[in-house]
């Protein structure tokens, strides 16, 4: 009974304490696509993603009931860093949903206008002014938001002294952006201003940016962040509701590692001892968690023992990599090792794929390229009037005339396709039931191969995974020269999840392989399950930019790169990598095996 | 069509084109759709006092469509020159718009015309026409990535003086939009700023960028009384995308201006 009362009390008090308007709540996920586009159109960096922001702990003045209920300590404020723009996962500040939606667009516009914050209080006002000036249509919306925000600010009567002063100045800044340039110091943090962008919380860790922090103003709590990551971790301790601390620390570690490492511009020499991979073991596990969530930490850290490993072919191939910070290719940065699973036994088609394989094979066997009328044929379905006329008007008329018919051309498909499959560790993840991603990929590769062997289009299949730049493993599964049969099928059936996803190197090598084909349409199909990543700096922006560069190179060489992914978040980054029409997200991975051949038909102009 | 074709130069293209014409060299113009290529060629033709024969290329275009063909008339068959042949005989400009759309075997007839020989062999009549001194060949294409696969044969492009066009600078584009539509400067400025926002979406979100042509369309619709929001939706959003989400976001963007 006591417990029950306690619960009731808690509910009651929480409801009392609430200042959000639940009925008008708007979710970020519903607007994400639109906001991304809006951000880019207004000049936001197209390489940045868009994510939900973690809540930030702020010490604001709380009403008694809010203190009792333990609410109003954390606020999901809007901020951005090199990786992405963070917006509150949902907004319910205002009583009308339309206003909450409009706040999302406002924050997005302001972030595009204000990529870097020097002084929180001043910059937000300045950017607001600039934005309203440049895009006068925004003014009406801004004033509505400003009015609604002012209503929700603490009443000045309830405050005293410095706090009152500070609140007055903030309200003034909202009402008349650009009119105040100093924020008075006062105890704690002011109630966050939902209309404004906040500085990135972790910038404090990058030594080079310390200077900017001096005057970030109260909103950023710069003093505290300067004390280092420990404090940060505390501040954010349960920032993610699930397994907060851990996830956050990792987040912190990686953002930090990404920046510091890049600042040092640490480059690993290929000549260096490859044994150092061992030192990275815990980073491997951390990175792994970061990618897949703490639930799936389990995995085998060991590299395959040399004798069980696939046969390396040759000494390896040196490939460049794109460093977006320098806007330059670093030559010979990656060592790609072609591998052949020489111990995989030849295998027949597995039972569960037989029916589909037969259907696909039949369908592909019927494939005809675009049918064209061939003129001037010795025989054909119709008379070639042009040829006839010409014959009649020829000054020196020959006795007999051949070639007076139109005929449909013989099927002659002038295309080649290389399928490149991501065999990284994340493919080991389960899909519900006892299916894993890798199983779906395996089935897809097999069905794809069966289908294409029906059409006789030349094709090759490779898989890849990596452990840093020195070990990009490039698995030969079927090459262009080999006829598809039990042997190649055996290799496809033997694929196993590898390590990380250094996609740029794998794409560059595939481009070179595909370049050896003479066909006029050369399709580079990439099958993936997530973003490019690796355990060195090949994370986040760096990996994305390198991959994008590799894709651009492929395209410049006349290839047609296309990505098929089962990553639901693919829409966020794939347009940047592959262009608007250069990818597709298959949200139900189970459908991948049947979708892949279909996609191939679309891409090669036979799906119409 | 006697009305003079205004053209606001973006750089030195008028001089370059004139020099190429004087030296009897063919010209290749690269640039996105609707950035003023056609307008430029028409303008130059007027300037140089030469007729212009424009051919919009497509993938069913045959060499006969360019060179000519026999037709049947009352007195039997007769030969009719195609636009290329006419320009070659009379000394005009033959402008092949979007030349990559044409099949490669079609463009082969251009080879002997576009080097020092300047001749057009007409296989069907057995003629070998020497080009008039004022004959000029001009081709254009849009090097967007959807055309990358088609491309232009290196052996073809090697024969041209090439220029690259892009959308005009904002100040210039404002002048063009005003001139071509009659809207006031402030409205033109808004349209151009919106157009430039939309151009940032090229490749990432949109296949094609908002062209000068579309900005002029929107301006004309506004001039004719449509509300700016509607005009922009109809001329700058709908033509660029079919995706509902993309359209909603563009609508928001339009609201940032009008
Ligand atoms: N420099 C310019 N001066 C005048 N008008 C221009 C200029 N550039 C573009 N335009 C306008 O843009 C429209 C579209 O240009 P157009 O030449 O048809 O494009 P393209 O041939 O490149 O597709 C023209 O009708 C003209 O009104
Ligand atoms: Mg044109």
How would you describe what is shown here?
The complex is a heterodimer of chains A (608) and B (258). Chain A is an alpha/beta fold and 608 residues long. Chain A has helices spanning 2-17, 28-41, 64-69, 97-113, 120-134, 138-152, 161-175, 210-213, 222-226, 229-235, 244-264, 281-292, 354-365, 385-393, 437-455, 486-493, 503-515, 540-556, 570-578, 592-603; strands at residues 26-27, 49-52, 56-57, 74-75, 78-80, 84-87, 90-91, 197-198, 311-312, 317-323, 328-340, 373-377, 382-383, 405-408, 415-422, 459-467, 471-478, 521-528, 560-565, 583-585. Chain A has four domains: 2-175, no CATH class; 202-237 and 279-289, no CATH class; 322-366 and 413-603, von Willebrand factor, type A domain (Rossmann fold, 3-Layer(aba) Sandwich); 374-407, no CATH class. In chain A, strands 9, 10, 11, 15, 16, 17, 18, 19 and 20 form a nine-stranded mixed beta sheet that branches. Chain A has a four-stranded mixed beta sheet with strand order 2-6-5-8. Chain A has a three-stranded antiparallel beta sheet with strand order 12-14-13. In chain A, a hairpin with a 3-residue loop joins strand 5 and strand 6. In chain A, helix 4 packs across helix 6 and helix 15 crosses helix 20. The model of chain A is unreliable at 203-307 (pLDDT under 50). Chain B is of the alpha/beta class. Chain B has two domains: 13-164, P-loop containing nucleotide triphosphate hydrolases (Rossmann fold), CATH 3.40.50; 170-257. In chain B, 40% of the residues lie in helices and 17% in strands. In chain B, a hairpin with a 4-residue loop joins strand 6 and strand 7. In chain B, helix 7 (170-181) crosses helix 8, helix 9 (212-223) packs antiparallel against helix 10 (228-237) and helix 10 (228-237) runs antiparallel to helix 11. The chains are: A alpha/beta (608), B alpha/beta (258). Chains A and B meet through helix 2 and helix 14 of A and strand 3, helix 8 and helix 11 of B.
């Amino acid at each position: 009974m006591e417990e029950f009362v306690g619960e009731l009390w808690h509910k009651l008090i929480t409801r009392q304490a609430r200042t959000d308007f639940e009925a008008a709540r708007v979710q970020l996920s519903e607007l994400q696509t639109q906001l991304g586009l809006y951000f880019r159109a207004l000049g936001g960096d197209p390489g940045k993603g868009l994510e939900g922001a973690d809540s930030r702990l702020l010490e604001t003045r709380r009403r008694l009931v809010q203190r009792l209920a333990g609410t109003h300590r954390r606020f999901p404020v809007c901020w951005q860093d090199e990786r992405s723009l963070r917006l509150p996962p949902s907004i319910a500040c205002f009583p009308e949903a339309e206003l909450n939606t409009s706040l999302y667009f406002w924050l997005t516009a302001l972030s595009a206008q204000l990529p870097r914050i020097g002084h929180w209080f001043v910059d937000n006002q300045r950017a607001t002014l600039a934005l309203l000036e440049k895009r006068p249509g925004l003014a009406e919306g801004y004033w509505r938001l400003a009015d609604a925000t002012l209503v929700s600010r603490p009443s000045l009567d309830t405050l005293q002294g410095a706090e009152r002063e500070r609140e007055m100045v903030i309200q003034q800044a909202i009402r008349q952006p650009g009119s105040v340039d100093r924020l008075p110091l006062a105890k704690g943090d002011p109630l966050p201003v939902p209309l404004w962008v906040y500085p990135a919380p972790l910038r404090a860790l990058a030594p080079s940016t310390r200077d900017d922090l001096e005057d970030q103003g109260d909103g950023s709590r710069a003093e505290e962040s300067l004390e280092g990551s420990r404090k940060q971790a505390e501040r954010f301790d349960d920032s993610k509701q699930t397994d907060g601390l851990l996830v956050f620390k990792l987040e912190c570690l990686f953002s930090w590692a990404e920046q510091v490492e890049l600042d040092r511009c640490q480059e690993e020499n290929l000549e260096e001892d490859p044994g150092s991979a061992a030192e990275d073991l815990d980073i491997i596990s951390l990175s792994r968690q970061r990618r897949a969530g703490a639930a799936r930490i389990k995995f085998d850290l060991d590299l395959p023992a040399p004798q069980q490993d696939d046969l390396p072919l040759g000494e390896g191939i040196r490939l460049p990599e794109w460093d977006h910070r320098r806007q330059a290719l670093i030559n010979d940065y990656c060592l790609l090792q072609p591998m052949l699973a020489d111990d995989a036994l030849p295998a027949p088609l597995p039972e569960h794929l037989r029916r589909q394989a037969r259907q696909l094979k039949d369908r592909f066997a019927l494939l005809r390229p675009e049918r064209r009328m061939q003129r001037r044929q010795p025989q054909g379905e119709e008379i070639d009037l042009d040829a006839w006329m010409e014959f009649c008007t020829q000054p020196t008329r020959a006795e007999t005339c051949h070639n007076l018919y139109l005929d449909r051309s013989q099927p002659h498909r002038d295309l080649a396709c290389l399928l490149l499959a991501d065999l990284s560790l994340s493919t080991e993840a389960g899909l519900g039931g006892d299916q894993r991603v890798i199983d779906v990929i395996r089935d897809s590769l097999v069905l794809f191969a069966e289908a294409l062997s029906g059409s006789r289009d030349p094709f090759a299949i490779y898989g890849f995974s990596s452990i840093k730049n020195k070990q990009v493993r490039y698995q030969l599964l079927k090459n262009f020269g080999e006829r598809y049969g039990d042997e190649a099928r055996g290799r496809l059936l033997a694929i196993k999840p590898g390590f990380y996803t250094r996609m740029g190197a794998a794409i560059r090598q595939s481009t070179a392989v595909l370049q050896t084909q003479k066909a006029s349409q050369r399709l580079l199909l990439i099958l993936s399950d997530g973003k490019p990543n690796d355990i060195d700096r090949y994370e986040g922006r760096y990996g994305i930019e390198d991959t994008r560069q590799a894709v651009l190179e492929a395209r410049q060489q006349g290839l047609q790169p296309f990505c098929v992914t089962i990553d639901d978040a693919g829409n966020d980054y794939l347009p940047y990598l592959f262009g608007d029409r250069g990818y597709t997200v298959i949200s139900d991975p189970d459908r991948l095996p049947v979708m892949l051949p279909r996609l191939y038909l679309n891409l090669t102009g036979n799906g119409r | 069509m006697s009305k003079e074709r205004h053209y606001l130069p973006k750089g030195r293209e008028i001089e370059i084109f004139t020099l190429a014409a004087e030296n009897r060299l063919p010209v290749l113009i690269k640039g996105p759709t609707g950035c003023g290529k056609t307008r430029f060629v028409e303008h130059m033709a007027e300037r140089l006092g030469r007729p212009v024969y424009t051919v919009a290329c497509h993938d069913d275009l045959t060499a006969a469509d360019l060179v000519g063909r026999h037709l049947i008339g009352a007195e039997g068959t007769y030969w009719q020159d195609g636009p290329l042949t006419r320009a070659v005989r009379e000394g005009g400009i033959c402008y092949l718009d979007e030349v990559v759309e044409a099949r490669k075997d079609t463009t082969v007839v251009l080879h002997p015309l576009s080097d020092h020989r300047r001749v057009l062999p007409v296989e069907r009549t057995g003629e070998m026409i020497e080009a008039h001194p004022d004959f000029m060949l001009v081709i254009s294409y849009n090097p967007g990535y959807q055309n990358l696969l088609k491309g232009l044969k290196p052996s073809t492009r090697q024969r041209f003086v090439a220029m690259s066009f892009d959308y005009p600078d904002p100040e210039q584009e404002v002048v063009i939009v005003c001139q071509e539509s009659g809207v006031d400067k402030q409205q033109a400025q808004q349209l151009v700023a919106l157009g430039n926002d939309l151009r940032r979406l090229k490749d990432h979100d949109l296949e094609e960028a908002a062209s000068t042509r579309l900005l002029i369309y929107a301006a004309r619709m506004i001039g004719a009384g449509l509300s700016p929001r509607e005009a922009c939706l109809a001329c700058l959003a709908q033509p660029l995308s079919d995706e509902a989400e993309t359209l909603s976001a563009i609508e928001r963007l339009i609201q940032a201006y009008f």
